[in-house]
Amino acid sequence: MSMSDQGSILVVDDEPHVSEMLEEYFAELGYSVDVATTGDEALRLAVAKRPDAVILDMRLPDMSGEQLLAKLRTLDGSLPIVMLSGYAAEDMARRVVAAGALQYLQKPFDFDGLSRTIVEAIEAGREHRSADAECVAR
To answer: Which range marks the domain in which residue 68 is found?
Structure first.
């Protein structure tokens, strides 16, 4: 199975130890992984490469994760986005899921759980895009 068969992931986190850990973990599983440390960088990469899924931290140096979530959803409403936060906040979890995030996970997260979530996210995103393509083809 080639790298592109697993899918591509955009990791958006300004903490180097977190982004490097996620990049290594998913690369070992066969994913193509890009890392952004700011919201602006994430938007540029999302436009240039259209990842299959995004792992997005709630706190970035140039904008909040919620702000970036809204911008990414405007860019592509079918893009699966998993939010990460170091803070437990049920109201925030509800808000980001209502705003279009697939899931909200608290740090430290369980890698197996995150991996399952990403597999589901990529499958859901691909199904959504193929349905969109069928609509356009009609």
So the answer is: 3-137
